[in-house]
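Why predict the complex rather than its parts? Because the way molecules touch one another can change local conformation, and only a joint prediction can capture that. The input here totals 221 residues.
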Amino acid sequence: GENVEQHPSTLSVQEGDSAVIKCTYSDSASNYFPWYKQELGKRPQLIIDIRSNVGEKKDQRIAVTLNKTAKHFSLHITETQPEDSAVYFCAASYGNQFYFGTGTSLTVIP
Amino acid sequence: DTAVSQTPKYLVTQMGNDKSIKCEQNLGHDTMYWYKQDSKKFLKIMFSYNNKELIINETVPNRFSPKSPDKAHLNLHINSLELGDSAVYFCASSQTEYEQYFGPGTRLTVT
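Output of the joint prediction:
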């Protein structure tokens, strides 16, 4: 089955700096790669996603890149703000099977 | 309207009891899921189910069983609860190959 690894497990950045979270996957059949943000005590919510036929996608301060050959994808957050503090999960999916990374706890220091 | 709902939000029970958590989605999605999130925040898939196929994570004890009365509901039954079952359980739904929508979670505490 699919194996998704996520790094780092914790990340602290100063407000205004950029944050990068990286994930790798093992199954070349995976074709959909969402990123979820989970605030304390709340449900995971989708913040951005990318499909295997696209190399990069951007939505305001958030961007995701995908390297299919190397089987890795990354989340980039620019101009971080305190409200970006949360746990972020990557996932790889094929059909209706989703495999999540182990999460990154991001802290943005004001 | 709430897309994916779960009840109850909190569940406190004693070891050995049997309990159920209900999940409903009004999105018309064809697949529903149950996840367990432990104290370290790992999101572990337990089941995925559509009207054709139930896929069970092989590490899930058979004390856990999903029951789907119809396409919009996937309930989770847990028998003989153990201390290690304490966690937050999330229900989710998706249309195949698209975004998953999560429910609000049920915090289960086994004493």
